[in-house]
Amino acid sequence: MKLEYLGNKKLLKLHKIAFLCSRKTPATVVLNCYDWAIEQREKGTCVIGGFQSKIEKDVLHYLLKGTQPIIVVLARGLKNRLEHQFKKPLEQGRLLIISPFKSDIKRVSVKTADIRNRIMAELADKVVVGYASKGGLINELFKEIVSKKISYLG
């Protein structure tokens, strides 16, 4: 599968921690995820994520306030217009956006999200799961292929 890139490809050589979190997350886990994001920001850790679920988007919000590298893997094709929040990190060379899909794939589906999650798992040195819903994509994926890389926050 050919990947499309926008940004600093050198970030792929760094030690990377992937972050995933199911869409439906118990309130008890939310603060753990935010604390984790702030800790990674302060450590300067390169975090890789799809940043699609509400909690993942919040984690990205905390990360973007720092100076550490971030890799975003999309579950759709690259957009023609870049989100405002990505402009400055891209200019600073601390952001890489990756898509395994052609630009005509404009919507996220269960299938594209699964492909994205698998790519993230392959690229990451470690995977942190904020929360995985029973029977959900994240839970099933990591049972299958990367159980050695996972640490759970909640």
Describe this structure in words.
It is a single chain. This protein is of the alpha/beta class. The chain has one domain (4-152): Rossmann fold, CATH 3.40.50. Helices cover 38% and strands 21% of the residues. It is built from five helices and seven strands; from the N terminus they run ββαβαβαβαβαβ. It has helices at 27-43, 54-64, 84-91, 110-123, 137-144, and strands spanning 4-7, 16-21, 46-49, 70-73, 95-99, 126-131, 150-152. The chain has a seven-stranded mixed sheet with strand order 1-5-4-3-2-6-7. Strand 4 (70-73), helix 3 and strand 5 form a beta-alpha-beta unit. Helix 1 packs parallel to helix 2. The longest helix is centred in the first third of the chain and has 17 residues, at 27-43. The radius of gyration is 14 Å and the shape is globular. The termini are far apart.
Keywords for this entry:
154 residues; Rossmann fold; 38% helix; 21% strand
Kindly report how far apart the N and C termini lie.
33 Å
Q: Which ranges are low-confidence, i.e. pLDDT below 50, for 5 or more consecutive residues?
A: none
Largest sheet: 7 strands, mixed
User: Roughly how many Å is the radius of gyration?
Assistant: 14 Å
Topology:
Blueprint: E1 4-7, E2 16-21, H1 27-43, E3 46-49, H2 54-64, E4 70-73, H3 84-91, E5 95-99, H4 110-123, E6 126-131, H5 137-144, E7 150-152
Parallel strand pairs: 2-3, 2-6, 3-4, 4-5, 6-7
Antiparallel strand pairs: 1-5
